[in-house]
Amino acid sequence: MTAAPTYVDELRDAASHLGRRRFLTVTGAAAALAFAVNLPAVGTAAAAEFDPRRITENPFTLGVASGDPLPGSVLLWTRLAPRPYESSGGLPTGNRVAVRWELAHDERFTRGLRRGTVDAHPEFAHTVHVEVEHLAPGRVYFYRFRVGAWTSPVGRTRTAPAPGARNSALRLAAVSCQAYPDGYFTAHRHLAREDLDVVFHLGDYIYEYPVDSSGGNRRYKPGTLPDVLGHETLTLDDYRFRYALYKSDPDLMAAHAAHPFVVTWDDHETEDNYADDVPQNDVPPAEFLIRRAAAYRAYWENQPLRRPQRPQGPDMRLYRRLRFGRLAQFDVLDTRQYRSDQAYGDGWQVPGPLSEDPRRTLTGATQERWLIDGWRASDALWNVLPQQVMFAERRTLPTAAYKLSMDAWDGYPASRQRVLAGAAAAGVDNLMVLTGDVHVSFGLDIKADFRDPASRTLGTEIVTTSVSSGGNGADRPGNHATLMQANPHMRFYNGRRGYAKVTLGLDHARADFRTVSSVTNPGAPVTTAASFVTEAGRPGLKPA
Q1: In angstroms, rounded to a whole number, what is the distance separating the alpha carbons of residues 114 and 109?
Q2: Distance (Å, rounded) from C-alpha 21 to C-alpha 18?
Q3: For the segment 428-455, what is each residue's pLDDT rounded down to a tens digit?
Q4: Residues in CB range of 165: below 8 A, 6 or more apart
Q5: Is 101 helix (H, G, I), strand (E, B) or coil?
Q6: pTM of the model
Q7: What is the 3-state secondary structure (H, E, C) of 379-426?
Q8: Under 8 Å CB-to-CB from 268, ≥6 apart: which residues?
Q9: CB-based contact 494:529 (threshold 8 Å)
C-alpha cells in the first residue's frame, strides 16, 4: 500500500515554481507549512490500517455528498469524523481506514449496481472522494458508505446526459453565502425538496470569522460551540473545524444528500476580499500563501471535487467545464485566485484610470483564454457562466457621482469587455451568468454598453441571494428605488434570503427567485418572490 502524499510533499513541488509569487524557498516553505498546519514529516511511511470495528461512535457526522456529474460518472464524498472538532476527527492520526461504498438504482439498495472499498487517509482528514465510472448517462442513482458497524445516510445523485443528447429541459439551483452565525440554513432544507438535476454553490460556503456562543442569530446554548471555533481561521486545522461546523448543519446535509453539487469558491473560504497572493491585511504574500494553501487544502477535502481539482500547495485548478447534452454548457469560473488587486484600495469607489486599466484582469489570462476557447467549441444552446461576483454594472446613484464596487467585474471593466467580445466572436447567442456574493437577489440584462440603455442585450445575469448571510433581509431594501433608477438594465431586486431556481428549455429559460421570510427562526416557509423568462435567441429578462 503506497502512502498518500503529504501536504508538505505537495508544497515542496509547488514551491519549486513559485518564485514568481515571491513565495518562500522550497525548504523554507515546506518547513513553515509543516509548522503551521502540524502535518506529518516528509517521507512518512505508509499509514497503517485501522480496524474499523474499533470505531465506537458514528463516523458520518458530516453527512454525504456528490458532485460534478459527468455523462458516465459521479463523484461521491464523505468524511469520517466521529469527533469533528478534534484534530484527527476522533480517529488515529497515523492510520488509514477502509471505507466501503455502494451504488444502487433504488434508495433501499434492493437493486445494487456497484460497490467497492477505498482508503480514507489521515493526510486528507479521512475524507473520501470516490469517482464511480461506467454509469449510464442521465440516470438517478443512490449511494451510501459503510465502515465497521456504521452506515452513512443515503444520498441521491444523477449523471449528466450523454454528449450530443438532445435533452429538452434542465433544472438547476444556485446558492451562495451561508454565514453560520447569521441564521438557519432553512433555504437548504427547501432546496433539498426541489426537483433538480444539479445545484451550483457560487461561493462563501464558510466564513473565516470567529464563531462563538455569544453572538449571532442562532440560539446557542452556553458552551455548545467548541472553543476551536472562537478565532479566525488561519491553519489547516482551523479550516477543517470550520467545515465541520457548517457540514454538521442538518439542512445543508439534506441538500447535499438530495442533489449533486457543483461548487466554486469566493473569498471567505480563505479570507475576505483577497486577490491572488494579496491578502486583505498587511501580511507578506509569502505568509499569506501558507494560509491560502491551508484553506485550499481544506476546501478540496470537504467538497465533492474530483482529483484534477486537488490542490498543489497554494494553487488549485478550480475552473472547469461541464456539459449537459446539447442543451447547456457550464463554464465554472474562479475569480479570486488569478485576479489583479482591487483598484483604489477596494470598496465602493468612483471609477477611474486605475480601475479601467486594460491590463487588469479578474480571471487571469490563462483562464480567460480557456473560457473563450470553450465557447468557440461549444454547440450548446445555453452557455452558462457560474461564478462569484456581480458581472453587470451596478451603480450606486442615478447621477454622475455614482460609485462602483471595485471587488466586482465593475472594478475590472476591461476584463469584462474582453469576455463579452469573446462570447460575441464565438457566436454565443444565449449567455447566462449565475452570480452570488451580494446577499440579495438581482435579475439583470447584460448590455453591450451599460452607459446606453438602448444598446444591444448580450445576455442575462441571475444573482442568487444568500442562504443566511446578512440575517433576514427585506423584500425591498432601503436603496431599492435608487438602484433600480440608477441601473435601467436591472429588472428585479429583492433582499430576502433564499436561492435561485433556473429551468433551461429549448425555447426559453425561466428563473424563479425563491425566498424565505426569516432565517433567525428555523422552519420559515419558502415562496417565489418573482419569476422571469428569457427567450432563446432573444436575450433579456421579462416577467413570467
Answers
A1: 10
A2: 5
A3: 999 999 999 999 999 999 999 999 999 9
A4: 137, 138, 325, 326
A5: strand
A6: 0.94
A7: CCCEEEEECCCCCCCCCCCCCCCCCEECCCHHHCHHHHHHHHHHHHHC
A8: 203, 204, 205, 206, 207, 208
A9: yes
